[in-house]
Amino acid sequence: MAVKPLEDRVLVKPIEAESKTASGIYLPESSKEKPVRGKVTSAGPGKRLENGKRAEMSVKIGDTVVYGKYAGTEVEIKGEKHLILRESELLGVIVG
């Protein structure tokens, strides 16, 4: 099953936070924060403008993005959690 987002939406696979600190201490599940980074796995064609053309998406498949802690809608695809977000809910693209 493949999911193709519509309009200006993107499908993001969250990147889980590290379960161990830099000093080697393992964190319990309850202390982990919700992921706010993820990899774009699919993107829609872009928002339709008033002139009928589509706006170009500012992210592409494979980009690592940052989004708000409670942004988007969670969906499960092939047993894995993903988020569907509007392009405007993305806070930035991680470069490098």
Summarize the structure in short.
The chain is mostly beta strands and 96 residues long. It contains no helices and six strands.
Examine the secondary-structure arrangement and name the CATH architecture.
Roll
- Give me the number of helical elements: 0
Shape: elongated
CATH class: Mainly Beta
Number of domains: 1
User: From the helix content, strand content and strand pairing, which structural class follows?
Assistant: mainly beta
Strand-residue proportion: 35-45%
- DSSP strand tally: 6
Question: Strands across the major sheet, in which order?
Answer: 4-5-1-2-3-6
Largest sheet: 6 strands, antiparallel
Q: Span from first to last CA? A: 31 Å
Task: Provide the succession of SSEs.
Answer: EEEEEE
Radius of gyration: 15 Å
CATH topology label: 10 Kd Chaperonin, Protein Cpn10, Chain O
Mean pLDDT: 84
By CATH, the superfamily comes out as GroES chaperonin
Helical percentage: under 10%
Poorly predicted ranges? none
Explain how this protein is built.
With 96 residues, the chain is mainly beta. It has a single domain (9-16, 33-94), classed as GroES chaperonin (10 Kd Chaperonin, Protein Cpn10, Chain O, Roll). The chain contains no helices and six strands. It has strands at 9-14, 37-43, 64-67, 73-77, 80-86, 90-94. It has a six-stranded antiparallel beta sheet with strand order 4-5-1-2-3-6, with no helix packed on it.
